[in-house]
Structure formats: structure tokens, C-alpha cells
Amino acid sequence: MSALDLNLCAAIRSSIASLEKTLIRENALNSLVDSVNNHIPTIKPEQMTDNSKLRDETKDLVDGFLAYLCTNFIGTNTPNGYPQIPFVYSASWNKVRFTKLKGLYVEEDRRGTVWSAKKLTLVEFARFVAVLSKASKLLYKNGYVTKRDFYYSEVKLFGSAGVCYKVLDTVSEILNIPVWRMHFLAGAKGYAAGSLSFKLNGEVVDFSNAIVDGYHISPLTFNATEWKSNAKFVLIVEKDAMFKRLLRDNILEKLGPMILVTGCGYPDFATRIFLNLLWREIQKPMFVITDCNPHGAVIMSVYKYGTKNQSSKYQNLTVPQIKWLGVHPTDLIKYKIKPQYLQTLTNDDKKAYRTFKDVCEKYKEDAWLTQVILMLKISRRFK
Questions:
Q1: Which GO terms describe its molecular function (predicted)?
Q2: Residue positions annotated with a catalytic role
């Protein structure tokens, strides 16, 4: 770990220690938790368990689309030799949908855009069939595969992992279901520890035993049942290094009962599904601590609102009640962080700021925007 990382850890540890003393002295922790609890609505947990009924519905949809493609594609050619699915008119796939009743169609565009014909080349057709065939087999056997493993099993067809993942997302978009519903899983990188247990595949997963390095969050968390916790709150930290440092500093005992989580940078689907389910099942306040830079702010917003290109089918990846504790630009002033530990904002930081600004304006998060504007004004970050 670099000297800068050590200084970052030391600074945040100092901040948390200071916060801990203040909370204990003024008994403010319970008040903070209670105030957030009062704003958590009563939620009927959405059924995400991959039960047989849901699996059968998905398989029926996948098989229907596969049959539709093969029936309408074979023998259909345009004059220039490119095969084309009949009656599909779209400049891109993000407006194309499929149902068994309507077949493949384009959603109505409120802006009245005139779409050009979308051609499906032989290679695209083969890639679609590969994805749908694999999904059908996985659903039939109730098996799973990571997107990475699937790519390497069809590396010649896709050519690159990016192309493979894009086709998976395209099929997901057309069927209007998350990729995990087709039993393709993203590699999980998040960790959690603390007062939590649930059943997964018939076995009890107890996060209270993972007090050293945390428990690796499973990409199959959506199948978990019997969630149990007496935690007062959930704390999410941006970096894996900080997560492990806080565990070694016994934060679970000092501020517990609690749950500590990290997405190890930009959170993956597994971590975000885990947090969404955690929020729904135990309904406790959730707080985020990130680096004091635009990327940290964006990461925090991803936990709360998701990413810009997400559709409604990914509502299970957000936690609307999450609170951003910091590190804020105002904290740099409050805790008198020395100039030698601060870095100048980069062009990449400014690009991330524009992304964050769009989120703030869309969801009317004026307090967030004020913090990042201050960061731009001082032109410094703390990472």
C-alpha cells in the first residue's frame, strides 16, 4: 500500500473515530438511525427468487424469441445480401422488443423519430442464436454461467468480451428482462461482513463469521431466503482497502451491530442486487463513504439511482433511501487535510463531474451538487 493510501486510511479512520466519539458522547447514533428509519417506507419485498415459475416464464420467452428468429430469418435476404428480420425498423436495438403475441417490434418513440431499417447480419444472427440457445439450456437445467466463461466458450464467434457482453445486453433489452433472468451472471467482486445471515442453496451464509476479510458476495444472492439481521444500519465504503482496514479496526464491535459492505470501486450487479435485497429484507438505514472526488460521487449515485443507461427492469439494482456521509469537499476544510495529500482534478475527473451533475439535476440533489461544485472551485481531490 502506498504512502498516499496509508494517509487516506489514516485520515478516514481518524474521521470515523472522531465521529464514533461524538456519536457515543451525544448518543446521536440512535437518533441518526431513528431519523432515517422514520423515512423508510414499508415495502413489500419484490419477488426476485428464481423459482420454477419465473424460470419457466423466462424459458418460454427465450425459446419463443429463438424460434421467431430462426423462422423469420432463414431464407430472408435483402437485395444487397444482408439478411433482415421482417417488420423491424430501428436505428439501434434499444427500442426493439419481443413478445410471443407481437413478435419483434419497435416501441413507440414519443419524439416521433423516423427509424431506418435495422439489418441483422449473418454474424449477428449467429451471436443471437448462441446467446439464446445457451440461455435455454441453462434455464432447462437450472444452471448458471458467468458472462466471462460464456465468452471464452464462444471466443471465435464473438471476437472480444465487449462484443459478447453487448449482445447479452441487447438480448436482455429486447426481451425486457435482466441478464441474470437468463442465468448469465456477472463476476462478483463485492464483500460484506457483520450482523447478517440468510439461506442460499439450502446452506446458511453467516456474515458475522467473516470478521477478517469479509464474505465474498455471491452473484446468486437473488436466490437467498430467510434473511436475518439485528444491525442498526449498513455502511458502504468505496474501496476494498478501506473495508479491510475498518474490519481490522474492529468497527463491527465499536459501532455494531452493523453491516459493512464494499463494491470495490464501481459496484457490480451482484453487489447492487445484494444491497437492494438487504434494504428490502431488513429495512435499515444505509450510508455510503467514498473518496472525495467526482468518481466517488458518481459511485455513490450509482448505489442510489443506478446508471444513466439503465431501464426500469434494473430497478432491483438501486437503494433509493441511501445517504452519502462523505468524504465531502467540506470535510477537507473541516479536518484540515494538508495540501500535500491533495491532487489536482484531472480531465477524467471533470468528465465524471458532468455525469454527476446530470444525476443531481435529474433527481434534484442540490446538496450533492453544491459539494461537487465546491470541489471544482478548489480544484482539488482527495483519493
A1: ATP binding; DNA binding; DNA topoisomerase type II (double strand cut, ATP-hydrolyzing) activity; metal ion binding
A2: 152
Give one DSSP letter per residue of 68-103, joined into a string. HHHHHHTT---TTS----TT-B-SSGGGEEEETTTE
Nearest residue to 117 via CA among 76, 147, 56: 76
Cα–Cα distance measured from residue 374 to residue 376, given in angstroms and rounded to the nearest whole number: 5
Q: Grid coordinates in use for 121?
A: 447480419
Encoded amino acid at 253, one letter: E
Query: Which residues have a Cβ under 8 Å from the Cβ of 204 and sit 6 or more positions away?
Result: 197, 198
Read off the pLDDT of residues 90-123 as tens digits, 9 standing for 90 and up. 344 455 555 656 555 555 544 333 333 455 677 8
> Alpha carbon 35 to chain centroid distance?
26
pLDDT tens per residue across span 279-328: 989 989 999 998 888 888 889 989 988 876 654 555 678 888 889 887 78
**Omega before residue 88 within 30° of 0, cis:** no
DSSP at 293: S
Question: CA triplet 238, 241, 247: central angle to 5 degrees?
Answer: 95
- Rounded Cα distance, 140 and 128, in Å: 18
Can you state the angle between helices 52-73 and 161-175, rounded to 10 degrees? 100
Yes or no: say if 104 and 96 are a contact pair by the CB < 8 Å rule: yes
Segments making up each domain of the chain, as ranges? 3-48+186-381, 64-182
β strands within 59-206, DSSP E: 96-99, 103-106, 145-146, 184-185, 191-194, 197-200, 203-206
Beta bridge mates, 259: 194, 234
CATH architecture of the domain 3-48+186-381 equals 3-Layer(aba) Sandwich (3.40)
Q: What is the Cα–Cα distance from 172 to 192, expressed in whole angstroms?
A: 28
As beta bridge partners, residue 281 has: none
